[in-house]
Amino acid sequence: MGPDRIECKGVEGATAAAHALSLPAEAYGNDAQLEVMWAMKAYNHAEVYFNLISSVDPKFLKLTKSDEQIYTKFREAFPDLSIQVLDPELLKSADAKEKWRPFCNQFEGVVEDFNYGTLLRIDCQKDYTEENTIFATRIQFYAIEIARNKEGYNDFVHNASSKAKLKKDKSSS
């Protein structure tokens, strides 16, 4: 039997939700409310990240204290992986999972919550939408987004946001 159902209202609810999300997955089975909380947490993470790359030049972003190590190991393991527009099969197929598993597992104890689920944009020039989003582990997200930042692929989002802001500022003057 899993933990009691959680009401996510107010500080007590947020505290209960945070505690629940820290428990091992085996404690839950298929709790629909927990799935909704995970989805909300993943969406909030995605929204914060997209706002960040929209506001700050992605080349200067540091996502973890291990960015250099993650990037180096990622490009050693996946030197030819196209990251501008991802092919979900290269992340999700059985063969892909076999290639990703050793890469991901080397970051256990190095990157906090390395295997938590998060949302990843397929096309880095587009926002998070249902059609442009896949579910990935946090270390896959970091590896791909650090590479996108370093290799200039996320510049498009930043530049588009900067141009839109400049246009808005000029029209309101």
TrEMBL record:
Matching Gene3D superfamilies: yst0336 like domain
PANTHER family found in the cross-reference section: PROTEIN PBDC1 (PTHR13410:SF9)
One GO term describing the cellular component: cytoplasm
Organism (species): Labeo rohita
Domain Polysaccharide biosynthesis: 34-158
The name this protein goes by in its record: PBDC1-like protein
UniProt cross-references to InterPro entries, sorted A to Z: PBDC1-like_dom_sf, PBDC1_metazoa/fungi, Polysacc_synth_dom
